[in-house]
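User: Okay, second chain of the day. Same drill as before: sequence in, structure tokens out.
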Amino acid sequence: MRPRLALVLLAAAVVVTGLGARAFLPTALGGPAGDALYATFVVVLVALARPTAHAWVPPALGFALCVLVELFQLTGVPATLAERWAPARLALGTTFAATDLLRYAVGALLGGAVCALVDRRDRSRARHPGAAPG
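Assistant: Same drill. Structure tokens below.
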């Protein structure tokens, strides 16, 4: 499987898992899991946008973007947008919470690790093109 396709499928799986965690787990578990998976998703998007970047770039940039979104919540603009268009809540949140920053760090590390595995598998296949998929 091509690495970009693998990343697209990974992004879709992360979204489904994050939404499922928020919908089906108790709030005490689903909220933190959803926050971490939000950051994982952002990291995967960065990896898709910057496929040739060094391995540390997607998790670092993904985490930085999540922090910016969290700080943006201090302005009240995301909450207003969420009142007018419900999907904005999923992308921007509504209320600043410092604990989300730790969850984003965990999610960014997870995203970086998964992206590294996809990249490693792709490089391995490039070195051994005749090897059976595994």
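Residues 3-127 form one domain.

User: Thanks, on to the next one.
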